[in-house]
Write a structure and sequence with these properties.
Blueprint (H helix, E strand, L loop, with lengths): L1 H32 L2 E3 L6 E5 L2 E5 L14 E5 L2 E4 L5 H11 L4 H5 L1 E5 L3 E5 L21 H15 L3 E2 L3 H8 L57 E7 L4 H4 L14 E4 L17 E3 L8 E2 L3 E3 L1
Bound molecules: calcium ion (2 copies).
One calcium ion (CA) binds next to loops.
Length: 299
């Protein structure tokens, strides 16, 4: 009997130690991709993005004119949200503050369901498709997401804000590399990101939003930069801004009427819109069921 026990141990031990090696390898992988920090209040993960200089704009020559003037930009290091902010995280904010979003105050949110609709009664709680707590929050205006960032900053003692366009594009392109999309390979397919539902889309089986982090991250360990939901940026939009942008830490024009959003979403018919360099803009009170955000923590 004892002999069998020894033989069994002899067989099992190597398997166990191999399993623990695999486990450690995964942890190591995670750290190699970037240092992850979690905010002490919501436990939201942030990846450290080392600062640097890069050529901002349409490096591939297939963008709109507002991204055509490729120009050098340098950004200081920052912590970028690993994921888009989720319904569950936004719910904590609303539960604690009683905050009313622009969609709730105005009584509608723009939705896409095959056509554009100003949908009465639609808001982040009910964007007219089903979401669980781990999906990215939508139907939030620029005003709403700035209020969220200010609340989290106050609660946690760290400084959170929306990324600037320059920071967002730098992070999407894995530290300013010459890649078109913010996916694990820099290419785009339904195995790599969530965009318009076609019914036979590989890993992308979502007609609307997917839980955050459903696809592999880009090289920095940041998820869903291309696709899932569009993401608000901090800057005012100016189609000619690239002609007059500062080189170091540009923050956009000092005034304007529309705020920038980036990255494409589940509702995009064209891959074009999921490119890191593409620039969209809406007024700060605009909200839609394909538009959300992620936060940045200043160093
Ligand atoms: Ca999809
Ligand atoms: Ca996104």
């Amino acid at each position: 009997m004892r002999k069998w026990l020894f033989i069994l141990l002899f067989l099992i031990l190597p398997v166990l130690s191999y399993a623990s090696m695999i486990n450690e390898w995964w942890l190591w992988e995670e750290e190699e991709r970037g240092q992850v920090w979690k905010d002490p209040y919501l436990g939201m993960g942030f990846v450290y993005v080392k600062g640097g200089c890069y050529e901002m704009g349409d490096l591939f020559g297939d963008g709109y004119s507002d991204e055509k003037l490729v120009h050098e930009v340098c950004v200081d290091g920052f912590w970028m949200g690993r994921y888009e902010v989720t319904v569950g995280q936004f719910r904590r904010f609303v539960a604690e503050t009683g905050y009313k979003t622009d969609a709730e105050k105005g009584g509608y949110c723009w939705i896409w369901d095959g056509e554009w609709k100003k949908k009465r009664g639609a808001n982040w709680r009910d964007p007219k498709f089903s979401q669980d707590e781990n999906h990215p929050v939508v139907c939030v205006s620029w005003n709403d997401v700035v209020a969220f960032a200010e609340w989290l900053s106050k609660k946690s003692g760290y400084s959170f804000r929306l990324p600037t366009e320059a920071e967002w594009e730098y992070a999407c392109r894995s530290g300013g590399k010459k890649v078109k999309y913010g996916t694990s390979t820099g290419d785009l397919s339904h195995d790599l990101a969530n965009y318009i539902y076609t019914g036979n889309g590989g890993r992308d089986r979502w007609e609307y939003t997917a839980p955050v982090g459903s696809f592999l991250p880009n090289e920095l360990g940041i998820y869903d930069m291309s696709g899932n939901v569009w993401e608000w940026c901090r800057d005012w939009y100016d189609k000619d801004y690239y002609r007059k942008s500062l080189r170091d830490n540009p923050k956009g024009p000092s005034t304007g009427s529309r705020r920038v959003y980036r990255g494409g979403s589940w509702a995009c018919f064209q891959q074009f819109f999921l490119r890191c360099a593409h620039r969209g803009s809406y007024s700060p009170e605009f909200r839609s069921n394909f538009l959300g955000f992620r936060l940045l923590r200043q160093k």
